[in-house]
Amino acid sequence: MSKTFLVADIGGTNTNLALARHDGKTIELVFKERYSTQDERSLLEPVQRFLKAASSLGFSEAIDFCCVSGAGPVQADETIQLTNAPWSISASELSALLGVPVRLINDFTALSYAVTLLNYKNEAEITRLPHLDGSLGEPADGLMLIVGAGTGLGVGFVDRHGKSVTAYPSEGGHSELPCFDALSHYFSEWLSERYGYPAGAELAISGQGIANIFEFVCTEKLDARMIAAEYGIPQPGSGSGLGSGLDAGLEASLDAGPSELSKGILKTPRTAWPAAIAANSRTDAHCALTMELFVRLYALKAANLVSILLPRGGVWLAGGISSKNETWLLENHRFMRWFEKNYAPHIREFLSKTPVLIVKNYDISLLGAAEAAHQFSEHG
C-alpha cells in the first residue's frame, strides 16, 4: 500500500521540502520546493507555503507521516537546534500543524538511510574514486560511513545486512582536526586562537572551513619556500602539485602576498568565498593552496574515521562541496594520496581497499527522510 509522506531536509543554507510517495519498495518525490534557511524564522511558515503551493498544483492527498532531517543534534526526539541557523525545529509544533505524527532525525541519519538506496555503479548518481593502484573496491554489507562537507561537516554511519538497515546519528564533524605538516599545525593553532578551543574538523572541512583556510593563507605571513617544497611547485599541464593551471612561480606568488583577485574575494560576503575560491583555484596561488589544504584535511579526516569504524560498506562523500569539486579530489589521486596514509601497515592495507564514493544526487537527503518515514511508520 502506497503512503504519502511530507519530508524535509533543513541545512544551514537551504530548506528543502517534498511530498514523497512510498510503496514499500520505491520512492517518488512528486512535488518539491526549496527555501532559504537564513530567510526563515521557523519551519512552520515554509511548510504552510509549501502545502498551499502543492494543493494549487493538484497534490492534495492526505499526508500519512512527516519526517524532518535537520543539520543539528536531535534532543529527546522533540527538537533540533540547527547548528548553522538561528532557529530550531519542534516536532510537537509541526505535528499540531499537520495533524500527523512527526519524527525528527539528524541530517546525516537521513543520508545514512539514503545511501543504502543508491546503486553505486550508477554514474549519474555516484563517482567512484580510484585508489592509488587503480582499483575501485566493492561496497560490502556491514557498516557504511557517510562524511559530507557542506555548510558544516556532517558524519553518519549505517549498518546494512541484506534488507536490515540501522542508521546511527553522529556529531563526528566536531571531532578533532587532523594535522600532518607545519602548515596544517600552524592553521590549527590559528583556529584555536580564534575560537578559544582546540580546532574541530568542521572549522576546516566545510564551506566555512574553506573560508577559514583562505583567510589564513591570505592574512598570515607564511613561509613560501617551505610551502612550495611541501606542496610541490606545479608544472603547466602536469596535473601535479597545486593544480595544472598554475605556473611554476608558486613560491614567488605566495611570497608576494594575495593577488588583486584574492583581495577582491576578501571584500565580498564571507558566504560567497568558497565558490569564488574554487572557481579561481586554477589561476590564483592563494585559492589553489586553500583547495589543496582543504582536500588533504578532508581525506585525512575520512581516513581517521575509517580507522575507528572499519566500514566495509565504503566511505560515501556527501554534501555539495565534493560533487561540485570532483576534479580537485580526483586529479592526480589528490584525495586518495592522503586518504591512504597511516603509520600502521594493517590500517594502510584496509584503507587501500575501502571503496570511496562521491554522491552526486542532490535529492539524496529527501530520499533518506522518506525511507526513514517509511521505517518509522511501519515499525515505530
Provide structural commentary.
One of its GO terms (biological process) is glycolytic process. With 380 residues, the protein is an alpha/beta fold. The protein has 15 helices and 14 strands. The strands form 3 sheets. The chain has a 6-stranded mixed sheet with strand order 9-14-13-10-11-12, with helices on both faces. Helix 3 crosses helix 15 and helix 5 crosses helix 10. The radius of gyration is 21 Å and the shape is globular.
From the structure above, extract its key features.
alpha/beta; Nucleotidyltransferase, domain 5; Hexokinase, domain 1; 6-stranded mixed beta sheet; kinase; ATP binding; D-glucose binding; glucokinase activity
How do the strands and helices of this protein lay out in sequence?
Elements (H helix, E strand, L loop, with lengths): L2 E8 L3 E9 L4 E10 L7 H13 L8 E6 L3 E2 L3 E3 L6 E3 H8 L3 E5 H9 L10 E3 L13 E8 L3 E9 L2 E5 L13 H14 L11 H13 L4 H8 L18 H6 L4 H7 L6 H7 L5 H25 L5 E4 L1 H5 L1 H5 L3 H6 L5 H7 L4 E4 L4 H16 L1
Parallel strand pairs: 1-4, 4-8, 10-13, 13-14
Antiparallel strand pairs: 1-2, 2-3, 5-6, 6-7, 9-14, 10-11, 11-12
Helix pairs in contact: 3-15, 5-10
